[in-house]
Automatic annotation (TrEMBL):
It comes from the Bacteria. This is Prepilin-type cleavage/methylation-like protein. The lineage of its organism: Bacteria, Pseudomonadati, Pseudomonadota, Gammaproteobacteria, Aeromonadales. It comes from Zobellella taiwanensis. Keywords: Membrane, Transmembrane, Transmembrane helix. The chain crosses the membrane at residues 13-32.
Amino acid sequence: MWRANAGLSLLEYVVGLAILAIVLVGAGLFFLSQPRQLDPVFQFRAVSLAEALAEQVLAVKYDAENDPYAAEHKRCDIGAAPDCLNAPTAGADARLKDFSHVDDFRLWCGDDNAIAGNALADQLKLSQTLLYTRYRVQTCVTLNTVDPNAPFKEVTISIADQSGADLSFILHRYNIR
C-alpha cells in the first residue's frame, strides 16, 4: 500500500525558493528603474530653464564699456576703445532686471554662488516655479581673445539636480552691435 507524504520534499523547497528569488529580483529591478524613467522630464525642465536664461544673456549688451549704438571703433577692445572689463557691475543681491551686460551673469559662477532653480524661474517669470526647486544653476563668463580682431565672451550655463546629474550649455557672445 502506498502512503502519501504530508510534507515538502527538499527538491520542492529549493524550487520554491528559486521562484521566490526570481520574483523578488524582478520586483526590485522594476522599482529601482522608476526614478530613471523620470529623468527625461527633469532634463526637459533643465533645458527649458537654460533656454530661458540664455535668452536673457543674449538680450543684454556685450560689456559695460561697450556702446552698441556707437560706431564700430567705439566698441570695447576694438581700436582706441576701452578694454572689455569682464567684471559684473550688479550687486550680489541683484535680480535679472538689474543685469545690464553679459558679465553680470558671473555673479552665479561657482558652487557657492549658484542660484536655486525656483528662484531663477521666478525671476524669468516662468510658470510653476516649484517644478524647478531641485535645480542649482551656475553661469560663468570668460573673455576669449584667441583672435584679437573678434573677441567673444564664453558663457557656460550649468544646471545640476539634487541627484548630482548636470547639463551644461556654452554660448558665445560676440562684440557686435
